[in-house]
Write a structure and sequence with these properties.
Layout lengths: L1 E5 L4 H13 L4 E6 L19 E5 L5 H11 L3 E4 L6 H6 L1 H22 L1
Parallel strand pairs: 1-2, 1-4, 2-3
Length: 116
């Protein structure tokens, strides 16, 4: 089983990555994160050398990148934690929220649909 976890360097996603990597050693966990203000790879140090874990830096809204990643990795499951989440930031720059939270989710859905 190969699982893509987006936003896996954030608080919730990172905890999910830890749980999955440790509880399911036979699953391959691919952590995709853009490492913006909410991402922190330091919290993933305990799993970074595990054989069933891999980190990929990238943007879920980058359609060519995502389509290529899905084609190469052949994911069985996608768990999306990637999101712009700080409400104060949405007031000053709503475009980035639409780009990540709406368009990025659409890109992931299209990529998953193409794999089916």
């Amino acid at each position: 089983m190969k699982i893509l976890v987006t936003g896996g360097a954030g608080f919730i996603g990172g905890n999910f990555v830890h749980h999955m990597v440790n509880k399911y050693p036979d699953y391959q966990i691919v952590n995709l994160d853009l490492l913006t203000y909410a991402g922190n790879l330091e919290t993933l140090k305990p799993v970074e050398d595990k054989p069933n874990y891999k980190f990929v830096k990238g943007d879920i809204a980058d359609e060519p990148f995502i389509m290529d990643l899905f084609e190469k990795e052949k994911f069985d499951i996608v768990v999306n934690f990637a999101a712009e989440s700080h409400v104060d930031r949405s007031i000053t720059d709503p475009g980035i929220f639409v780009q990540t939270n709406v368009m990025g989710t659409r890109v992931l859905l299209d990529a998953a649909r193409n794999m089916a």
